[in-house]
Write a structure and sequence with these properties.
single chain, 126 residues, mainly alpha, two-stranded antiparallel ribbon, 3% strand
Length: 126
């Protein structure tokens, strides 16, 4: 068995690591590299699940102040890719994700916000 990197997804398997033949494979799989992001399929799946949950909840959004506060937390995080406006952990576009009330940071730096309930005004007594 060929030696494998400590982050190799094939660590427990007996087959040869593709990174032994192509260093780019190993480099892209390394979660400790500075610009690591999830692969395209994982990003599509994650966004699809988040969008479906958002629609199922009635598409609640947060206020502009809440969105700005969430984005400020993201921008201060070492996992934020400022060039793309995405999270390196989940791969989501944070401008969109921060707007959805039911969404949460994958690093648990901010969580869902309950949308304000419509409250009936009290009846006027005449």
């Amino acid at each position: 068995m060929n030696p494998k990197c400590s982050h190799c997804p094939l660590m427990t398997e007996d087959r040869e690591c593709p990174g032994q033949r192509n260093g780019r494979v190993c480099y892209r799989a390394d979660p400790t590299r500075p610009n690591h992001t999830p692969g395209i399929l994982r990003r599509i799946l994650g966004f699809t699940v988040a969008a479906a949950q958002h629609v199922a909840a009635g598409m609640p959004t947060v206020t502009e102040a809440q969105k700005a506060a969430r984005l400020a937390i993201c921008q201060a995080c070492d996992q934020f890719n400022a060039d793309a406006g995405t999270c390196r952990k989940c791969g989501c576009g944070m401008s969109t994700k921060a707007e959805w009330a039911g969404s949460a940071c994958p690093l648990r730096k901010w969580g869902p916000i309950e949308a304000a309930q419509d409250v009936e005004a009290p009846a006027l007594v005449t």
